Amino acid sequence: MTNTATDILTDLPFLNELSESFRERLMSESRIVEMQEEDIVTAQYSPGDTFYILLSGAIAFSLKVENEMEELLVGQSNHKFTPAGWSGFKEPFRYATTVTCNADSVFVCWEHEFLRTLFEEDAEGALPFLQFIAGQAQHMLLDTWQMLAQLVPVADQSLLKLKTYQSIEQGVSVDTLDLLNRSPFFEVFEEDELKEFESIGIKYNLERGQKLFDQNSPAESFDVHMQGKVALIYSFDPDQKQLDHRIINHDGYLISTNCFSDDQTNYLSCIALAPSTVFRIDAKKLKSYLKKNPELAIRFQLRLLWFYSNRLRSARAKLIRINFDGEIAAVRNLIEQNCTQLDVTSDLHKVPHLLKSTISLQDAIFSLRTLAESGNSLERRIANSALDILTEVVRESDFYNGLLRVYSEVANAPFYYTSKEVRELCAEQFLEVFEHTSYQVKGWENLPDVPAIFIYNHLENHVYNTLPNRFQLTLDSHFISSVILYKKYKNPGIRVVRIPRGEEYGHQYYYERLGHIPVFTRESGSKFDSKEERKKQRDDFFETAGKYLKEGTSIMLAPEGTSSTTENSPKLFKPGAFLLAAKMEKEPLIVPVAVANFDKRLNRTTFAAVIKKPFKISEKVADPENREEMSAFLEAYQKEFRTYIDEAVELANADSWLNALAQD
């Protein structure tokens, strides 16, 4: 080695911590490599023969994405001592990313085969070297979290609220040794070693909403998830407007390893979304135990590198999902990165295909959950990572299957059920479905104690929620009838619905069982074209709706007579709802309910409803039969109602659970 190379290497931060013999062998086998801008340092999937440390210059990390011409940038660095090619430390000894020079760069490098031999022969001497690499790997993770936090604003992340369901039965106790045996991280250690880990740790219980640690606080423990559900949250800015998060509910998953970072600082916050238990090892005790067992310490550090590699893959898969708006692409890429290690008969190869349809989506999720529990080590790890990527898709799948159950319950309700009983059954089923979604309701205090006419802006249904019989259950109206009316009055009310066209048999049978009030619209067909038919059906509507109000059942209808998106709602109001109120002998209250986001996919939004103060039409219009006066009111009220919808949108964008993150 030249004197120049020796001078360069003495600048490596871990060099002085190495034993003299280890340092000499390491330096003697090192090479200084100079590369030009756009040169490829490592190629994704190629054999991981060489390990590099950046001495000067800049590099970029990228991934190949199926069906995309260009590679996806997943990281950049101009930090001195950034490692590249460290996936070669673990099986299958292939590079996980393509690393390219962003500028003329200089590296020091070693062959992985030499390093593996050196680690085996001098475990104690190798420890500072591996600790340095693990610390740098954590910084690469931090860089990826920063990218994710800046890509998606909080309002669009559909973060789970602190309105979760208790996931731990009272009195249930998890055996720590059994947990460590099942943990993917600890599976490489012997039984006696696991018992030692168990002996130096404790079980730590968390209540829902309680924080385990804060971002930027001292990292004083090594934490493993035992049971429950926690969120790991990275905040890019002090106002917590740019976040990246990960929900952890896998037993044996590592929650915190930052006690092994170079600055021993927590890079994330951890908050319990449900009552949870964590296995916690004090950092000083763990490091003391490892120091007494150098060979074990080497395997522990290599396992940390394995863990950081997996975390990077999962985080980069989220980048793929966000950039290409596709969880399927992200999961497919995740499986592709591990395909050389997966058995060709593994059910994981089927998952991307099953994810393509709402009908087979549940099969994909079932397969992943099964593999996460009973697959081999690699299958469990990939399945858990895939489920992390698909968190919102799983929630959406559960919602879709809930819609299927509701339709089936209504359509197949016993023939002797009255329409009122079927409506109550429907409301109970929908209440259960919506309780597992993210929603906000404001204005409960505005609900009257007597039956009323509830008006709302009618939103389109997202095509994703179309049932196999091509029917779409209207989410906004069912939300109002179940979550609002049924909760308040134990009576879901009755809706005014469009008479379906002949080919809409699913639509027709469903609403016939519910006994809703049918009306013709232009979308219903030819009968609406007859002036006589229009007058007759209007008179019938007033009579039927008035009867229900007198009998104590609230009426729900959308004054627009059509549907639209949240952004374009409401359309021009028609006078029907207001004329109905005016014609009643005892004038009923009209309760406005503005809804937002029911036209969006569940995994992209939070539903919202704002209940405004009720009013009587006589307070707004002196003579409802006067067309000019009514038209002026409808035009003005449509604009006013738009402000209600804006209020609902703002409500949906407010993530109340983030307040808990800011609490001390």
TrEMBL record:
Domain of life: Bacteria
Ranges of residues in domain Cyclic nucleotide-binding: 14-75
CDD domains: CAP_ED (cd00038), LPLAT_AGPAT-like (cd07989)
Annotated Gene3D superfamilies: Jelly Rolls
Pfam family membership, one: Acyltransferase
GO molecular function terms noted in the UniProt entry: acyltransferase activity
The protein's name: Cyclic nucleotide-binding domain-containing protein
Upper taxonomic lineage: Bacteria, Pseudomonadati, Bacteroidota, Cytophagia, Cytophagales
